[in-house]
Design brief:
The complex is a heterodimer.
Chain A: E1 2-11, E2 14-24, E3 29-33, H1 40-48, E4 55-60, E5 63-64, H2 70-77, E6 80-83, H3 95-106, H4 111-124, H5 140-152, E7 158-162, H6 170-187, E8 190-195, H7 198-204, E9 207-212, E10 215-220, H8 222-225, H9 231-237, H10 241-254
Parallel strand pairs in A: 3-8, 3-9, 6-7, 7-8
Antiparallel strand pairs in A: 1-2, 1-4, 4-5, 9-10
Helix pairs in contact in A: 3-4, 3-5, 4-5, 5-6, 6-7
Chain B: H1 2-17, H2 24-39, H3 43-64, H4 73-113, H5 116-122, H6 127-164, H7 170-178, H8 183-209, H9 215-244
Helix pairs in contact in B: 1-6, 2-6, 3-4, 3-6, 4-6, 4-7, 4-8, 4-9, 6-7, 6-8, 8-9
The chains are: A alpha/beta, B mainly alpha.
């Protein structure tokens, strides 16, 4: 479980995050949604420590991340996996080397054990016959799946995904969403996904945090969204005509 | 103020880069890769530039010492000392700042803008150490060898050009490059190359590591890195010459 309390963050005097508090539960896909520039990525990067927060506290289970020294943070980070927006695979490494890299750095497993783990993770994300290809030689969807394989190779307790569907076609996006959801449930990870993809919200949004202009504007589940009494959220989620129609039909049906 | 900000951040980065590596074996393997990519791949250009440099210095010395009062073997001596004292260390350092320095900035800068550095940090890896330490050690290690190669090829260049244009005979030239040899000149230049190697690796690494934006900014950072490295090489050349002579 990850708990954040009263997080404030500003850049050059401009406040980007304003007093955000919430809880991200394990075994569920926790989504952070909001318009571009609303502070989603800053919040995610603050939670993982890539940005230092100005005020507030971040707890990984009972461990106060904000009070940890560099050494303790490094240790905790070995329990984290992160999928970046562009995949962030190492260009000079093959697919297999990318996934094996954390194992090489932090474990004393034998070459055979590492290979088994790499094969398992690549198999889990459905990557076949691409072990020796380089990131530039595979598609965007495959890159994301390799990035997920690399993120889970150390068996993390916490998984972070920054816009995992950006730049992907709707079908591949769905595959990625389902994959992340399955892995979250299977491995009981605390997963936080940063997205503005409404398909993801409706498909896998177990817990949803809506950020608007750096503030927590709404919190709930994908089922609550339909009836949420929040104008900004309604405008954001149902900006698409199809979604709006579907919502109205559903509300009508319920009435 | 901005100058002090950069100096402070540069030394903070160095402190992180030279901290204890996570796994020595991986860093050691990376060191060899860097020696090959940054050092061995530079041998060709060092050889070509040095041959021309040696040939041109020989011609210049010959044209400026055309008086019968000067024995022609001094042309060889002039070429040798110029190469050892300045050209094969300082000029080669400036050229390598362009070749190796821009390579380091663009590689690390591209990793920064594509979030690969963030990815290393999230894994719990000291990205500064992982990316900068092996490169710095590789460049500092390879620079003295490049210096020796440069002197060798520069002397060969003089031997080819001098007799070819009739400025000096081959025996006189060979006699000249052995005449009044002061081994301290080599020691002095070796010390300089170690400093230059350190600057050529760490300053571009600094500019690459803190780049913000996209491809355009990486290009700008590369240019800034090369310009700043060149200036600092010349500043250190002046300081070291004053200190070591």
């Amino acid at each position: 479980m990850i708990t954040i309390q009263h997080i404030n963050k500003s850049f050059d005097g401009k406040q980007v995050l304003k007093d955000i508090s919430t809880m991200f539960t394990p075994g569920k896909t926790n989504l952070i949604i909001g318009r571009s520039g609303s502070g989603k990525t800053v919040l995610l990067k603050s939670i993982v420590g890539l940005h230092e927060i100005d005020e507030g506290a971040i707890f990984y289970d009972d461990r106060d991340f904000t009070k940890m020294n560099h050494k303790l943070r490094k240790k905790l980070r070995q329990e984290m996996g992160m999928v970046f927006q562009g995949g962030a695979l190492f260009d000079s490494f093959s697919v297999e080397e990318n996934v094996r890299f954390p194992l090489d750095m932090f474990t004393n497993k034998t070459a055979k054990e590492k290979q088994e783990r790499v094969d398992f993770c690549l198999d889990r994300v459905n990557i076949k016959n691409a072990h020796h290809l380089f990131p530039a030689e595979i598609s965007g969807g495959m890159q994301k799946r390799v990035a997920i394989a690399r993120a889970i190779v150390m068996n993390p307790s916490y998984l972070f995904c920054d816009e995992p569907n950006s730049g992907l076609d709707p079908e591949t996006s769905l595959v990625i969403d389902e994959l992340i959801h399955e892995l979250t449930v299977d491995f009981k990870m605390t997963t936080i996904i940063n997205t503005h993809d409404m398909n993801s919200v409706m498909e896998i949004g177990d817990n949803i945090l809506f950020i608007s202009e750096g503030e927590k504007s709404w919190e709930g589940t994908k089922h609550d969204i339909l009836h949420a009494d929040n104008k900004k959220l309604q405008e954001f989620v149902f900006a698409n005509k199809t979604y709006r129609q579907r919502r109205d039909e559903k509300i009508e049906k319920n009435n | 103020m901005k100058f002090f900000f950069h100096v402070g951040r540069y030394f903070t980065l160095l402190a992180r880069a030279f901290s204890r590596p996570e796994k020595h074996r991986i860093y050691f393997r990376k060191l060899f890769v860097e020696v090959e990519q940054l050092g061995l791949d530079s041998v060709g250009i060092v050889a070509i530039i040095s041959v021309f440099m040696g040939g041109i210095i020989t011609l210049q010395v010959a044209y400026n010492m055309s008086s019968p009062l000067f024995p022609s073997y001094l042309i060889g001596l002039g070429n040798r000392d110029t190469l050892i004292l300045e050209f094969s260390s300082t000029i080669m350092g400036l050229i390598m700042a362009g070749k190796i320095g821009s390579n380091i900035t663009s590689e690390i800068g591209s990793m920064r803008v594509t979030e690969q550095i963030d990815s290393l940090e999230i894994m719990g890896i000291n990205s500064a150490s992982y990316l900068i330490l092996p490169k710095t050690l590789a460049v500092v290690f390879i620079f003295p060898f490049l210096f020796v190669l440069s002197v060798f090829f520069g002397l060969i260049g003089g031997l080819i050009v001098g007799p070819a244009v009739g400025a000096v005979t081959a025996p006189d030239y060979i006699n000249g490059i052995q005449y009044l040899f002061n081994p301290y000149y080599v020691t002095f230049s070796m010390i300089k190359t170690l400093f230059f190697g350190f600057l050529v690796a760490t300053i571009p690494a600094y500019f690459g590591y803190f780049v913000e934006g996209g491809a355009f900014e990486v290009g700008t950072a590369s240019t800034k890195a090369v310009v700043n490295t060149n200036i600092l090489i010349l500043v250190f050349d002046l300081i070291l010459t004053q200190l070591l002579f």
